[in-house]
Amino acid sequence: MEIQIQTFTVHKRFPLTISRGTTAESNNILVKIQQEGIEGWGEASPFSSGEKPQTTKILQQTLEQVASSLKKFTPLERQQIEQVLIELKIPSAARAAIDMALHDWVGKKVGLPLWRLWGLERDRIVPISVTIGISTPEAAKQRVRNWLEFIDARVLKVKLGSPEGIEADQAMLMAVKEEAPADALLYVDANGGWSLENAVKMGDWLATVGVIYVEQPLA
Fold it and tell me: Is 0.85 topped by the overall pTM?
């Protein structure tokens, strides 16, 4: 199989603010697998966490290097391909992009969307979430309204960890809750923006206002 790599820039419709800063765009990587005239597409997004940041440059170089090692396989040999990626210690974002492309190829090969190929019930597939970045309460309400214009969102992931403190977090969360559909589920991601003391306080408080779970409360 042939593998092609290309970078492209994603311009976010809404700049996203989290506890570590604000981003308005991301330089991502597309992975295209070709065989038998069929194309399978995957995507890798850079991120920095821990001691091994996965930058666009690192992901691109890794994917270009590993492409030659995978030429001898067909897209149907996913388990063998996965073993090679594990042995080469490929960054997780690069592995995910290849995995997406392989699944996309197989779905196109048999002419079925993956949810049908896997025997899933469409109405029972876990709904995706939309993200509300750190902002003022009024701006958060507007962001919820903006999202609802594009998608029937039933899960809202709210970024907290404001540099202005947990009182600002609480005010913003309540604003989102007020604007969200009555049956919407609320998730919180603090991106490591809380101290241990504040994480405990916020965890207790969030449980009382109906938040389902909290992601990465501590760095």
Answer: no
